[in-house]
């Protein structure tokens, strides 16, 4: 995909940190992009199978630590929405004037991102010292529904604001 098709945009775009995004969340995003005719851009360091659509694009970046995250931060515009569970990426998106929504339906905000970063750092420190902290729970139906509801609210507010 040519970057020229992204740089001349005037509408809201949805960006997805696609390497770790669950398939069921991607499916919700595909349907939403088609329904509201908004640009959906999935960024990953591997090839992605996406539906054929003028609204859905996949960008493959080189492998490496934070390469996809850095790409997203460099290319988002103010008020774009990024779908990610990566808290440092969410913090960078918010700092740049974008919005960040995790796959469980929780928006990261200027009011909660510092707390989320601190908790992430604490859990990393605990794991580094050998304490078993476990991982996140499996994405369940309630999580998927919460995500779909928050995405719909965001898209409705964005459409009403323009």
Structural description of this entry:
This protein has 162 residues and is an alpha/beta fold. The protein contains 6 helices and 6 strands. Strands 3-2-1-4-5-6 form a 6-stranded mixed sheet, sandwiched between helices. A hairpin with a 5-residue loop joins β5 (99-101) and β6. The radius of gyration is 16 Å and the shape is globular.
Task: Summarize this entry quickly.
The protein is 45% helix and 15% strand.
SSE diagram, text form:
Elements: H1 4-7, E1 13-17, H2 23-36, E2 39-44, E3 56-60, H3 67-75, E4 81-83, H4 87-95, E5 99-101, E6 107-108, H5 113-128, H6 141-161
Parallel strand pairs: 1-2, 1-4, 2-3, 4-5
Antiparallel strand pairs: 5-6
Helix pairs in contact: 2-6, 4-5
List keywords for this structure.
disordered N terminus; 6 helices; 45% helix; 6 strands; single chain; 162 residues
Number of strands: 6
Q: Indicate the low-confidence ranges by residue numbers.
A: 1-9
Give the helix tally: 6
What shape does the CA trace take? globular
N-end to C-end Cα span: 27 Å
> Major sheet: order of its strands?
3-2-1-4-5-6
Beta percentage is 5-15%
Instruction: Write down the secondary-structure element order.
Output: HEHEEHEHEEHH
Structural class: alpha/beta
Rounded mean pLDDT score: 87
User: What's the main sheet like?
Assistant: 6 strands, mixed
Percentage of helical residues? Answer: 40-55%
Radius of gyration, taken over Cα atoms and rounded to an integer in Å: 16 Å
């Amino acid at each position: 995909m040519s970057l020229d098709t992204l740089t001349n945009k005037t509408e809201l775009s949805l960006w997805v940190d696609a390497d770790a995004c669950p398939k069921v969340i991607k499916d919700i995003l595909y349907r939403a992009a088609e329904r509201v005719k908004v640009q959906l851009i999935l960024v990953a360091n591997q090839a992605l199978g996406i539906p054929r659509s003028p609204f859905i694009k996949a960008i493959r970046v080189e492998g490496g630590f934070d390469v996809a995250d850095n790409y997203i931060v460099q290319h988002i515009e103010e008020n774009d929405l990024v779908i990610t569970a990566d808290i440092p990426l969410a913090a960078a998106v918010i700092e740049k004037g974008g919005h960040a929504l995790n796959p469980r339906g929780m928006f990261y905000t200027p009011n909660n991102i510092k707390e989320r970063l601190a908790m992430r750092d604490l859990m990393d420190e605990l794991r580094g010292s050998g304490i078993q902290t476990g991982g996140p729970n499996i994405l369940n139906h309630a999580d998927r529904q919460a995500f779909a509801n928050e995405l719909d609210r965001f898209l409705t507010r964005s459409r009403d604001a323009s």
